[in-house]
Design goal:
By secondary structure, this protein is mainly alpha-helical. It is built from 5 helices and 4 strands; from the N terminus they run αβααββααβ.
Amino acid sequence: MRLSISRNLAVFALLAFPALHAEPSVVVTFNSLPERVRAQNPDLAAARLRISEALGRSKQSGRLENPQLETSFQHNPNFREGAVEIGVSQKFPITSRLRQEKDISLTELKAAEFEVRQVEQKLIAEANQSLVEVLAIRQRRELLTRQVTVTNELADSITKAAEKGEGSILDAGQARVEAMQASTEARQLDAKEAAAVGALKPLLGMRPQEGLVVSGTLPPPLVP
């Protein structure tokens, strides 16, 4: 009886609480970052949509409306003759003013497209800067972590030497203080990295709760 109840409870738990699948994280690198900004940045998408709408209105501004077919019938009862007239009339013909307005709008559209390209380059530069900041923070934290390990090992070595009368215990204490300072700075870098990633997400068209994985490393510095 207990086994049956346990099985029923297990089945109920599986039905009531289905497994939650985490959303896959977005992975960005130096190479994929520009295309991600162009494709997913909401400001660029909105600007391109406005340009497309304006371009559609511009193409329609100089077009003729559908022509209207007109007919008339005349009959002369004295001579038993009649005439039928068929013609096509245009309600609003194209004028030079409409053509000029269309040319001006196309010029403005070209200027808007150039402006969007400029903003696109600026956003890509900002995203690259944030990406470099994230990678630089990680590189600095890795150096601090190694410094903590090496400094603690040095402090242990100095302590053992001091116990044998071959060193000063004060040097060991100083080494441990330096290791503690490096460890504190490494923890502070975690918050800076989170802030840099948070600044990068809107540029990529991501929500704050979405996962973002920054991949890659900084290139080595070039010595002239």
